[in-house]
Write a structure and sequence with these properties.
Number of helices: 1
Helix content: over 70%
Structural class: mainly alpha
Distance between the termini: 114 Å
Strand content: under 5%
Number of strands: 0
Radius of gyration: 36 Å
Length: 87
């Protein structure tokens, strides 16, 4: 290779490296924006969902109590019916 070919190759390589450096700086900037803005929003959303889930669980407790009352009454009725049949 001649000196002019080497110089062209080095110039092309330097331009490519400069272009890559600019792209990497752009990517780093975008990652900082995501980290600073979006991750905080995601964390807040997750906390809200946890709070809603806790509230939903609490709201279902009355339904479970009602189920156990009905189940206990039904079993009591069945036992009473069986005992009346045996007499």
């Amino acid at each position: 290779m001649s000196d002019s070919d080497n110089k062209r190759f080095i110039d092309a390589f330097e331009k490519h490296t400069e272009h890559d450096d600019k792209r990497f700086e752009s990517i780093e900037g975008k990652l900082d924006v995501i980290k600073d803005n979006h991750l905080a929003h995601i964390q807040n959303d997750m906390q809200e969902q946890t709070t809603k889930l806790t509230a939903t669980t609490t709201n279902v407790d009355w339904l479970m109590r009602f189920f156990w009352i009905i189940a206990t009454a039904s079993i009591g009725g069945l036992i009473t019916g069986v005992l009346n049949l045996l007499k």
